[in-house]
Design brief:
The protein is α+β, with helices and mostly antiparallel strands. It is 20% helix and 29% strand. The chain contains four helices and nine strands, in the order H-H-H-H-E-E-E-E-E-E-E-E-E.
Length: 185
């Protein structure tokens, strides 16, 4: 099953029209329709916004079926690529129905970023740079993060990161699930 199919299935299960989802996310019905038909790709920030609005983990959009155990062998990780952001992501734990976090391993090409604009959403996030150097922007503050540097913050604060190195950066990123405490936007 692909992202578009899962997105449409989830939207319909929540009894939302494309117009309803558009109003809640600020994305156009046309874009959402194309995303459901796998005609366009999306940034991580946009997928998070959609997943949060639908009250599901971002990993759910990539899963075939939910499991009760989140053991994922290295060579079996689900991957996603957001070309516009130059980021390849790997879902490290998914399918576990009551999981409250979304751990992702992100490989960011030079100049890659999580989105053109700062994003904000409900929850908390933790990140640690495993390789490379990134600039992390939180509101109006900017931080340079090198190998081993970590950060934890409230996701409601506008944020994004950019690979400012000439080589790829690898970051472990953990996000609380959008359904944590059943918060809706």
């Amino acid at each position: 099953m692909d992202i578009g199919e899962n997105l449409k299935k989830t939207r319909l299960r929540k009894r939302l029209t494309l117009k309803d989802l558009s109003k809640r996310t600020g994305l156009t019905p046309s874009f959402l329709s194309q995303l459901e038909r796998d005609k366009v790709s999306s940034s991580i920030a946009t997928l998070r916004k959609i997943a949060s609005t639908l009250n599901v983990k971002i990993g759910y959009l990539f899963e075939e079926e939910a499991e009760k155990l989140a053991l994922i062998k290295k060579d079996k990780r689900k991957e996603f690529r957001c070309e516009d952001s130059k980021i390849k992501g790997e879902i490290l734990a998914s399918g576990f129905l009551d999981i409250k976090i979304e751990p992702l391993l992100l490989t960011i090409d030079p100049g890659g970023e999580t989105g053109k604009e700062l994003s904000n959403h409900y929850g908390q996030e933790f990140g640690i740079v495993l390789e490379g150097k990134i600039k992390f922007i939180l509101g109006k503050k900017e931080f340079i993060m090198d190998n081993g540097d970590s950060i934890c913050f409230d996701s409601a604060e506008p944020h994004k990161f950019v690979n400012i190195d000439k080589k790829k950066a690898i970051v472990l990123w953990v996000i609380t699930s959008p359904d944590w405490k059943k918060q809706f936007f």
